[in-house]
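Researcher: Can you fold this with heme C in place?
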Amino acid sequence: MELDIAPWLNMAIRWLHVITGIAWIGSSFYFVWLDNNLEDPKEPKKGMSGELWSVHGGGFYHKQKYAVAPEQMPDNLHWFKWEAYFTWMSGFALLAVIYYYGAELFLIDNSKMVLTQWQAIGISLASIVGGWVVYDGLCRSPVGQNNKLLGIIWFSLLTAAAYGLTQVFSDRAAYLHVGVIVGSAMAFNVFMVIIPNQKKVVASLIAGESPDPRLGQIGKQRSLHNNYMTLPVLLMMVSNHYPMTFSNPYNWVILAGLAIVGVLIRHFFNLKHRGQTNYALPFAAGGVFILLMMFASDMEARERKALSKGVEASFNQVQMLVTKHCASCHAANPSHESFEEAPGGVMLDKPQFIIQHGPRIMEQAVKSDIMPLGNETGMTDEERAILGKWIENGMKVDD
Ligand code: HEC
């Protein structure tokens, strides 16, 4: 029996990551929704700041919120933290399995910066830790008193980080890393601030003291930040599937624009749950989205026009290029040491397969430079232009 552990491990970790991510985001959205919908209590008890009724799963729920804490510790208190911790741990494991273990293929792009595997991993780790130190410092500084100002500064710094990372890593690794920085800040918010503060509140309740109200306020602020960071992070995590977002020199601008779209949509729902529906927000989000789409498509068209000027392409040339740059991995029996079978099931070692996969070759190797993975064979823009020309001309074999 032969065991091919790597892809199964990859799948299992990704599965876990998606499940725990859904659980975390679900509970996080739910509690922000609760907070936004609380009403003044009809029969207030001491410390009670709001209540609400809801119906779900065949029954009615009556929730009451005690800002800071009730007078006495309840017998049984439910905590929400493992969803966040497991999302981060599984995400980090996935980062390690794909981008650290496979750094040469997925993380490093020698045409941007020549890095060893350990240098690249070092930069990745430094960006995660650095991101948290900067964000947490901002929250604790006087800027932290003003959520709007803090949001603008944090957003600008992240955009600068996106620019920096696209100069160092492969484009899709750079996109993913911005997501990892923000996602880690969210998880560390839970681990380093929200839960420790809640523990302090519980400890003072048990000791019969009245807890410091600032502990609750700080926790609420961090949880609000997490709420706004969620939608952009989700997009960054799935961005790998959408080369049109990151396969141009202004990809960091597009990333910033998409983040704005996510924040506007989240803001719309937060206001709506407080009874302040503002349709300008989704329209603005849609407008920014359309502008980004136009901008990215235009950039792409210009770039390809410039490259394919005067290029002639015959099937012979194409077949030679594919053999040189693709077939070491994309063959029935790959000769590349990292692969035992054709990755993604895509084989390019026969003419009919090259034609069959024409449109996907266009996405992966002409419109973007995702393939050849890690560009180990140093495929040039001119060579990509030849592939593009041949596909555009209808993939003819007989010339
Ligand atoms: C070093 C190995 C390697 C080389 C060389 C390589 N690929 Fe790939 N390719 C992969 C892997 C791995 C995947 C699986 C997708 C992933 O994880 O990104 C893939 C996926 C693909 C896909 C499917 C993507 C999708 O999801 O639609 C296409 C198409 C493709 N490659 C085309 C090419 C072309 C064209 C070349 C040459 C210009 C090439 N590849 C060179 C490793 C390679």
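Model: Folded with heme C in place. Residues 250 and 296 are 8 Å apart (CA to CA).
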